[in-house]
Write a structure and sequence with these properties.
The protein is an alpha/beta fold and about 270 residues long. The chain has helices at about 20-35, 50-55, 60-65, 70-75, 95, 100-110, 130-135, 150-165, 180-200, 215-220, 235-245, 260-270; strands spanning about 1-5, 5-10, 40-45, 75-80, 85, 120-125, 140-145, 170-180, 205-210, 250-255.
Length: about 270
């Protein structure tokens, strides 16, 4: 029987400190403002901080799901603009070192989310660890956030390489964040795309350029949704990315379990 399932978008980065979580939160807010139902999953199992950006203190987090104390729907909290949040764990070493059994428990519970959202946004951790790649390969599209910095670009390419060569992943889009020069940012994307195409046979897509915006730190301190500021250049860019996602048709297909989806991607690559 065919059923609706959420469009799954994973947002990742090769390294930390590039604004990935902030971009993810604002993208979720922009989609919610477009009347899309959104579930935002903080997939950084050990150092989650979405709730910090939101100024929220959830009673339970994903560690309660892994322990069996709570189901994933039971730990979800209401966020701004009608989005729902799945809080990750922060400062919990056991979660940072979560094994395959624990990750499988999380993936099983993701199928229990009701009502089914239009979009499931996954804010992965940084790097190329098992937590990151497992969540990333659930996605219909992987958005990789980079800055115009050598370390960011090198680590982003490392993530792209792992996702493509180890897991056969083909749909990768790039967001260049905090850019002060659009022409330079486009040139940066062109170089990254050239390297990926030449050495991996994988052309990349430019999802968008987010310009440097002095209102970003202020919005972060005030726990505000930047995308609600009409005059913000960064918000305008994020709204444009969200509109592209929102314009895609709903996904209706035979019911599958996300744990099986991750396993299939692994088998397809081997």
């Amino acid at each position: 029987m065919d059923v609706k399932r959420p469009r799954i978008v994973a947002i990742s980065s090769g390294k930390g400190g590039v604004g990935k979580t902030f971009v993810t939160l604002q993208l979720a807010a922009a989609l919610a403002a477009l009347k899309k139902s959104v579930v935002l999953f903080d997939g950084d199992f050990g150092l989650a901080n979405l709730h910090v950006l939101l100024g929220m203190k959830p009673e339970f987090d994903i560690s309660a799901v892994v322990s069996g104390a709570k189901t994933l729907p039971e730990i979800m909290i209401d966020g701004p603009l009608g989005m729902r949040i799945i809080p990750g764990a922060s400062g919990v070493r056991e979660m940072a070192e979560l094994d395959g059994v624990g990750i499988a428990k999380v993936l099983q519970d993701l199928n229990a989310i009701t009502p089914v959202p239009d979009v499931l946004l996954i804010d992965t951790g940084a790097g190329i660890g098992n937590h990151v790649t497992t969540l990333a390969r659930l996605a219909d599209v992987l958005l990789v956030v980079v800055r115009d910095e050598p370390a960011s670009l090198a680590d982003a390419y490392g993530l792209i390489k792992v996702m493509n060569r180890d897991f056969g992943y083909q749909k990768i889009e790039i967001i260049i964040n905090d850019t002060s020069n659009a022409q330079r940012a486009e040139a940066v994307f062109a170089r990254l795309n050239e390297v990926s195409t030449r050495f991996l046979g994988l052309p990349l897509t430019l999802a968008g350029l987010i310009p440097h915006d002095g209102s970003v730190p202020q919005a972060t301190r005030r726990r505000e949704m930047l995308v609600q500021r009409a005059e913000s250049p960064a918000a305008t860019a994020i709204r444009k990315i969200a509109a592209s996602i929102a314009a895609l048709p709903p996904i209706v297909e035979p019911q599958t379990f996300l744990i099986d989806r991750a396993a299939e991607r692994m088998s397809e690559a081997t």
